[in-house]
């Protein structure tokens, strides 16, 4: 995908968002009430600015006068794979957090990532991925008393 | 000599053992945060905000401010040794810092950068100490229309002066305001832009947005570019420091100029980046021809100028934050957000209501920047070693830490998901030249800007003429209009001048 295409797609997405927001703000009342502007006025103005701005951005991208270099690929060759190998497991960790809580999910995520992507020895992997979440657990739950998500089963497993 | 009495009081508050410990801890954390990719000052402060809940407000703000100073100091380690500018205002430092480091003068170029930071910091802190109280006293006369005028000026400065694409900055700002509006309307109490979805009713928290946009987004960018951190090895020797002191005596004009430009520009939002480039340009122009050619190949003045400007700008960005409640940099915006969370009302009244807080902060700026110099000088090689930590271990750890920060703000699971979404947005926005600093600022200041506008209009019974009132609002609005339209006005002015000649 070219940067130009990405530029236009992002602008179109923002344009649609702007339209939806503008419509909702209009529904709330975008005009003047008894005491100055109503609740929807400010978001409505912002949505109008956003929509108008997006139209200009799309035109600039089409004409090639945008500040980004349109002809370059949006993601340089070989760049997409590392991004996805970071992002997808990270989403997996968040999903896992819903089930077993953040600390256990982080242990699983760290173990998997450092072993599979980094290719480190098991000793290093386990040392980092068990001890660091445990250290954070101790600092946050025990010293600062800031609770982290426990998910559905986390509270049953981490009991100390 | 009111100010000196207050400062002495502040020095006493910030000098308490507990607060001094916090100062040093904050500085060390800050340097590490500044060195690490994907963790800038703004993001680092955002992650630490939940930790500050257990502290008194003075200690809390000292911690965040010192993380800020530390990250300013730490940022140059990355740009000099690894040729990777961690922040946009560190770009100018790589021109001369990296060549110098490659020539085997890594220690010297680092110590030059640290001392330049120190000079910038001293200038900025003097400005903060003596100018902020005056500005606050003046700002006490501000009503809603004046506040709105200042806000308008702030955002038009971003559109007009910062960033590669003014129109994209404008769109990003508009979306920042829209995100701030989601949830309950503070004036009328109505639900806005929630589309009947329960998770949206709580609105978007700016800390989550910072961690996503600046943290996750930055991590994705770093792995995409496949950066390898193969930097120059460094050792700090006494001779490096003495050589730097000699250079400082020789190029004192460059240093002072850089610091002055920094403080002057940093006062305006988003001023640090142009300030560092301007200072670099001035320094180069001011040199005799034979030295001018050395620029870009490793001239020490090419480090002095941008670094003193960047730190001066970073420090003076606190002035509008503490006096007007309008932060001059993304990190100052996060600290301002922290202020609101700790239950303090930012603005000129802070000087009257919470003198221990304000003067504790100002005094800790003195302590922090002085101690910071010693810490970075003594431990620069250790901090540089942080960057040699292998990537496959660093990346997942950073994501884990970001998740903790995002969750701890409101104890909401959905915030971790928002963080990931903001991460993708940040990745796209950064690559497409959308400026995220004003978006973040709009998210922080959205409620304030909107209520200032609506209160003014209630005062005037709906008439927009209230924004064209002399003596304060009118000049602000006119200045905002000119600065905001500058990218379009500038070609016209040039053409007009051309025809005249």
What does this protein look like?
The complex is a heterodimer of chains A (160) and B (501). Chain A is mainly alpha-helical and 160 residues long. Chain A contains 6 helices and 2 strands, in the order αββααααα. Chain A has helices at residues 3-29, 41-63, 80-100, 102-118, 122-143, 154-157; strands spanning 32-33, 36-37. Chain A has a two-stranded antiparallel sheet. In chain A, helix 1 packs antiparallel against helix 2, helix 3 runs antiparallel to helix 4 (102-118) and helix 4 (102-118) packs antiparallel against helix 5 (122-143). Chain A is flat and about 60 Å long. The termini of chain A are far apart. The mean pLDDT of chain A is 85. Chain B is mainly alpha-helical and 501 residues long. Chain B is built from 23 helices and 2 strands. In chain B, strand 1 (183-184) and strand 2 (191-192) form a beta hairpin. The longest helix of chain B is centred in the N-terminal third of the chain and has 49 residues, at 91-139. In chain B, 63% of the residues are buried. Chains A and B meet through helix 1, strand 2, helix 2, helix 3 and helix 4 of A and helix 7, helix 9, helix 19, helix 20 and helix 21 of B.
Offer a few descriptive terms.
heterodimer; A: 160 residues; mainly alpha; 2 domains; two-stranded antiparallel sheet; 2 strands; B: mainly alpha; two-stranded antiparallel ribbon; 1% strand
List the secondary-structure elements of chain B in sequence, H or E.
HHHHHHHEEHHHHHHHHHHHHHHHH
Question: In this structure, how is the largest beta sheet of chain A organized?
Answer: 2 strands, antiparallel
Main β-sheet, spatial strand arrangement of chain A? 1-2
Along the chain, the helix and strand elements of chain A come as: HEEHHHHH
What share of the residues of chain B lie within helices?
A: over 70%
Strand count, sense and barrel status of the largest sheet of chain B are: 2 strands, antiparallel
Radius of gyration of chain A: 24 Å
């Amino acid at each position: 995908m070219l940067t130009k295409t990405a530029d236009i797609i992002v602008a179109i997405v923002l344009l649609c968002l702007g339209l939806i927001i503008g419509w909702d703000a209009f529904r709330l009342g975008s005009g003047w009430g008894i005491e100055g502007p109503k609740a929807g006025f400010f978001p409505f103005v912002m949505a109008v600015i956003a929509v108008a701005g997006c139209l200009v951005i799309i035109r600039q991208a089409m004409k090639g006068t945008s500040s980004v270099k349109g002809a370059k690929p949006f993601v340089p060759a070989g760049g997409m794979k590392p991004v996805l190998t970071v992002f997808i497991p990270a989403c997996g960790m968040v999903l896992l957090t819903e089930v077993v809580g953040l600390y256990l999910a982080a242990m699983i995520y760290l173990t998997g990532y450092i072993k599979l992507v980094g290719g480190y020895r098991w000793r290093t992997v386990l040392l980092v991925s068990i001890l660091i979440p445990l250290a954070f657990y101790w600092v946050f739950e025990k010293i600062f008393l800031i609770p982290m998500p426990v998910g559905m089963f986390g509270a049953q497993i981490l009991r100390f | 000599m009111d100010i000196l009495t207050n400062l002495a009081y502040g020095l006493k508050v910030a000098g308490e053992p507990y607060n001094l410990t916090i100062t040093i801890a904050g500085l060390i954390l800050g340097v590490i945060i500044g060195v690490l990719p994907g963790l800038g000052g703004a993001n680092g402060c955002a992650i630490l905000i939940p930790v500050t809940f257990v502290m008194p407000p003075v200690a809390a703000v000292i911690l965040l401010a010192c993380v800020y100073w530390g990250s300013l100091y730490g940022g140059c380690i990355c740009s000099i040794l690894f040729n990777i500018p961690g922040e946009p205002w560190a770009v100018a430092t790589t021109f001369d810092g990296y060549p110098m480091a490659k020539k085997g003068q890594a220690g010297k170029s680092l110590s030059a950068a640290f001392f330049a930071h120190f000079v910038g910091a001293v200038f900025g802190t003097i400005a903060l100490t003596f100018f902020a109280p005056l500005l606050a006293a003046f700002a006490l006369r501000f009503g809603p229309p004046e506040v709105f005028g200042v806000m308008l000026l702030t955002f038009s400065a971003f559109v007009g002066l910062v960033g590669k694409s003014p129109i994209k900055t404008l769109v990003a700002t508009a979306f920042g305001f829209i995100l701030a509006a989601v949830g309950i309307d503070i004036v009328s109490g109505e639900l806005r832009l929630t589309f009947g979805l329960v998770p949206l009713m709580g609105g978007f928290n700016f800390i989550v947005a910072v961690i996503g946009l600046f943290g996750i987004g930055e991590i994705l960018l770093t792995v995409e570019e496949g950066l390898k951190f193969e930097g120059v090895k460094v050792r700090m020797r006494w001779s490096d420091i003495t050589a730097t002191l000699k250079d400082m005596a020789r190029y004192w004009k460059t240093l002072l100029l850089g610091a002055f430009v920094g403080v002057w520009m940093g006062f305006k939002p988003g001023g640090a980046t142009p300030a560092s480039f301007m200072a670099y340009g001035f320094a180069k122009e001011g040199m005799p021809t034979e030295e001018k050619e050395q620029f870009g190949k490793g001239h020490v003045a090419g480090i002095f100028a941008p670094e003193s400007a960047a730190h001066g700008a970073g420090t003076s960005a606190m002035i509008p934050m503490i006096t007007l409640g309008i932060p001059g940099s993304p990190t100052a915006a996060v600290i301002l957000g922290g202020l609101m969370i700790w239950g303090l009302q930012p603005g000129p009244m802070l000087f009257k209501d919470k003198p221990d807080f304000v003067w504790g902060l100002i005094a800790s700026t003195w302590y922090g920047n002085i101690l910071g110099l010693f810490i970075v000088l003594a431990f620069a090689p250790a901090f540089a070693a942080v960057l040699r930590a292998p990537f496959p271990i660093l990346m997942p750890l950073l994501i884990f830490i970001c998740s903790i920060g995002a969750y701890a703000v409101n104890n909401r699971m959905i915030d971790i998901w928002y963080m990931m979404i903001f991460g993708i947005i940040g990745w796209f926005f950064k690559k497409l030249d959308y400026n995220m600093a004003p978006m973040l600022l709009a998210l922080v200041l959205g409620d304030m800007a909107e209520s200032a506008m609506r209160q003014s209009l209630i005062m005037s019974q709906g008439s927009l003429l209230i924004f064209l009132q002399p003596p304060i609002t009118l000049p602000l609005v006119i200045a905002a209009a000119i600065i905001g339209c500058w990218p379009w006005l500038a070609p016209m002015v040039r053409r007009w001048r051309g025809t005249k000649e």
